[in-house]
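debug: dumping io for the single-chain case to check the tokenizer round-trip. Nothing else runs in this session.
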Amino acid sequence: MPLTRKEAITTAEVLSEAMPYIQRFVGKTIVIKYGGNAMTDEKLKNSFARDIVMMKLIGINPIVVHGGGPQIGSLLEKLNIESHFINGMRVTDSKTMDVVEMVLGGMVNKEIVGLINANGGSAIGLTGKDGQLLRARKLKVKHKTPEMEAPEIIDIGHVGEVAQVNVKVLDMLAQSDIIPVIAPIGVDENGDSYNINADLVAGKVAEVLQAEKLILLTNIEGLLDKDGNVLTGMTTKQVDELIEDGTIYGGMLPKIDCALGAVKSGVTSSHIIDGRVAHSCLLEIFTDEGVGTLITNRSH
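debug: decoded output
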């Protein structure tokens, strides 16, 4: 259906507004953590894929890191494997790890690759095992209750953290037309697999590549103040103050810590954006308003 004159003018204005951002980010690397509603809603899945293809077409190097917790939970349930969580992390024995690899490295990863390719891109799926992309080490979890004098260290199985990222693999792909799609599975020096939090993987990849941006898609509007208003442009110092005074607490802390850590380690800016909005990545990168919270070291 052809555009009306008014719609055509609006489209031209949007493209014109995007031009300085395109000029600024051409040749730069942007790491996007993909999860939440954007990963389960059909319309949002396609808008995300189109955003990624658009970035690559105009000369930006997008790298996608994805989660898949709900999908893992669903298959474990079908297989009658009980899930246990400690401090919000899934206890992952060998049987559970097999399912994690099947879901993250297979089903979910290949669906995202397929979506990007179907929208005109050229994506390739990777886990941390490919080219030793993600070297992992076992995550030590501390647990403490009020009656305990000291925290205990709990073994939650094949749950890890990133020890090292093989930059050569990502550099090689960034110089080509290929869009990397990374499942957050790492491998240790013995060849054992580990399930790693996707936010942590995205943050570490952004850090080692000194990326222009780290974008974390969420199911909220962004970082909120005590009155529920979205905080748009924040410095790392301001975010630290909000953590100190209790404005940022609970479930948002790990995501904020990840975004903060990336910026403090040299990433130009981190963005916590609303993945429930269609084309949220393009809106955040190429418009003045954006759709979430930007964190940077620079004062505004």
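debug: round-trip ok. The longest helix spans residues 94-118.
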